[in-house]
Amino acid sequence: MLRSVGQRPMAGGEDVRVTGLRSAVSRLSRELAAHPAEFPDRGIAEEELATLAAMARDGIPEIFRLRRCLLLIASALGSVSALAGGLAAVRAAVDLFGEPPRR
């Protein structure tokens, strides 16, 4: 079957890790948007979540970039206990991609 340029494969043909990452990032983004408190690194967390969302949208992401984004998000949100569940879900989704290769 031919696909148009830019058309994405059906959900059945997509890597389940990418689907899980997209879902976890979406959840944490919604929770962060709904969180009423301002904190110094909120902008960093929002930017890195947007980066993760873009990587998930574009296909199989690079493990190093995934882990870097996760580290920045975790450090930005680490003290906000209301977001701990969403952050744990993003971490679990990133962990499904495995460890980065040794340099």
Please report the number of helical segments: 4
Model regions low in confidence, pLDDT < 50 over at least 5 residues: 1-10
The radius of gyration computed from the alpha-carbon positions, rounded to a whole number of angstroms, is: 15 Å
- What number is the mean pLDDT? 87
* Residues in helix, %: 55-70%
Query: So what's the overall shape?
Result: globular
Taken as a percent bin, the fraction of beta residues is under 5%
Which class do the helix and strand fractions yield? Answer: mainly alpha
H/E series: HHHH
Number of strands: 0
What kind of sheet is the major sheet? none
Distance between the termini: 40 Å
